[in-house]
């Protein structure tokens, strides 16, 4: 796990319990029970279970099986009584951001080969987060068109077939140039200039950053086209946003594309923005149409790169959908 990411819930639980024992708020001989601690900390039982097991391994607790754990040390006369703890708030702010990239990457990789089901309970357990956090993750993936709910209420990520990709790009080829023509008179130079600056900065770098490339894709295809006054076109294009997800994983061996193709896409974006700045709206729309043809070829290259179905281990929260 990235050191810059939020500390896991089990680490937070362990640290807080250690502080309580050290301060005397929880004393030697007192009993710690998994279910009680889950309620105290407002989390699922999985991170509590891991924290207690780690503290036992460190010699701080003694397991009593189903009866919980006893705090080690010289016990007071009333040993074995449950520790009295008030509710303790943990840092769960924006926990969904901590795990979103990993979940999206795993799901997208499987989608190149098959449809998969997402188990929300196992997802929460795997990343030591609450169900509220997993719902935030799944809601975002649903908003991007990556997953949908089946009739039984199960989250499903459908296989990204060549036909589906081509259909989505055909929709974009029909609507994006028209959307650009409609929004062009409303565009202001500062928005276009900032988008150009981001492209030029990335072109000057030898290392391409996935987040920056994703932002450049959003600048044109989502933010600029999202200002189109025909809201029906905008709503229809939202169905194609699933195509942008792999740009957040440029260095994944399956989801990524060659650096030369990334630079081609950046140059194409820059040329479109320059034509918009010069009020050559028809030329910009034509260049956007050409860009989308190349973009489809680049996207389909991922399917060729993925090759035939190979053995890729799935995390425990994913399973093949029948």
Short description:
The protein is mainly alpha-helical. It has 12 helices and 7 strands.
Keywords:
Four Helix Bundle (Hemerythrin (Met), subunit A), mainly alpha, Arc Repressor Mutant, subunit A, 3 domains, 322 residues, disordered N terminus, elongated
What do you see in this structure?
The chain is mostly helical and 322 residues long. The protein folds into three domains: 1-93, Winged helix-like DNA-binding domain superfamily/Winged helix DNA-binding domain (Arc Repressor Mutant, subunit A, Orthogonal Bundle); 95-160 and 309-320, Winged helix-like DNA-binding domain superfamily/Winged helix DNA-binding domain (Arc Repressor Mutant, subunit A), CATH 1.10.10; 162-306, Four Helix Bundle (Hemerythrin (Met), subunit A) (Up-down Bundle), CATH 1.20.120.530. It is 56% helix and 6% strand. It has helices at residues 9-23, 34-41, 45-57, 95-111, 120-127, 131-143, 162-183, 189-204, 210-224, 231-238, 259-277, 281-306, and strands at residues 31-32, 61-63, 69-71, 116-118, 148-149, 155-157, 318-320. The protein has a four-stranded antiparallel beta sheet. A three-stranded antiparallel beta sheet has the order 1-3-2. A hairpin with a 5-residue loop joins strand 2 (61-63) and strand 3. Helix 5 packs across helix 6 (131-143). The chain starts with 8 loop residues before the first helix and ends with a strand.
């Amino acid at each position: 796990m990235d050191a810059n990411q939020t500390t896991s819930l089990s680490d937070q639980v362990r640290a807080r319990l250690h502080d309580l024992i050290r301060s005397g708020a929880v004393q030697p001989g007192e009993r710690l029970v998994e279910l009680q601690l889950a309620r105290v900390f407002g989390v699922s039982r999985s991170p509590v279970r891991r924290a207690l097991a780690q503290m036992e391994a460190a010699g701080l607790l003694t397991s009593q099986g189903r009866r919980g754990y006893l705090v080690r040390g010289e016990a007071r006369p009333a040993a074995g009584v449950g520790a009295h703890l008030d509710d303790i708030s943990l840092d769960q702010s924006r926990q969904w951001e901590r795990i979103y990239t990993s979940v999206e990457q795993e799901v997208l990789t499987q989608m190149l080969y098959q449809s998969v089901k997402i188990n929300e309970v196992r997802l929460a357990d795997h990343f030591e987060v609450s169900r509220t956090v997993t719902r935030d993750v799944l809601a975002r993936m649903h908003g991007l068109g990556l997953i949908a709910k089946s009739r039984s209420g199960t989250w499903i990520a459908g296989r990204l077939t060549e036909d589906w990709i081509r259909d989505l790009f055909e929709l974009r080829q029909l609507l994006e140039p028209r959307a650009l023509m409609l929004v062009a008179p409303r565009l202001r130079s500062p928005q276009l200039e900032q988008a150009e600056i981001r492209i030029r900065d990335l072109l000057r770098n030898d290392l391409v950053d996935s987040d920056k490339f994703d932002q450049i894709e959003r600048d044109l295809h989502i933010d600029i086209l999202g200002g189109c006054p025909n809201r029906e076109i905008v709503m229809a294009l939202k169905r194609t946003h699933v195509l942008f997800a792999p740009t957040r994983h440029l260095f994944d061996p399956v989801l990524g594309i060659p650096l030369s193709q990334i630079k081609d896409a950046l140059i194409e974006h820059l040329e479109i923005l320059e034509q918009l700045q010069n009020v050559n709206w028809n030329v910009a729309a034509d260049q956007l149409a050409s860009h989308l043809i190349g973009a489809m070829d680049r996207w389909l290259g991922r399917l060729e790169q993925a090759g035939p179905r190979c053995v890729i281990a799935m995390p425990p929260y994913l399973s093949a959908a029948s």
